[in-house]
Design goal:
Mean pLDDT: 84
Radius of gyration: 16 Å
Distance between the termini: 50 Å
Oligomer: single chain
Largest sheet: none
Order of helices and strands: HHHHH
Length: 75
């Protein structure tokens, strides 16, 4: 289902759930393709419904913090 169809038929919560699920599976560009919209339209919709937009480099910071925690726990 495209983002436009979700907006019409499902409401804000359906749009939010679809955006979160699509962003969890890949990059924002991949999520936009999966939802049949542009990257900018996806970002605007995410802001409107309160879906968390990924911050560039966030996955790297989270992975480093987890590795540091494991290192400290092993010491």
């Amino acid at each position: 289902m495209t983002l436009a169809q979700l907006r019409r038929e499902g409401g804000a919560e359906a749009v939010r759930a679809a955006i979160v699920a699509a962003l969890a599976t890949g990059t924002p560009a991949d999520a936009a393709r999966a939802l049949g919209c542009s990257w900018g339209a996806l970002r605007s919709a995410a802001r409107r419904v309160g879906a968390r937009w990924p911050v560039p480099g966030e996955a790297t910071r989270v992975a480093r913090a987890a590795a540091l925690d494991r290192y400290r726990a092993a010491r």
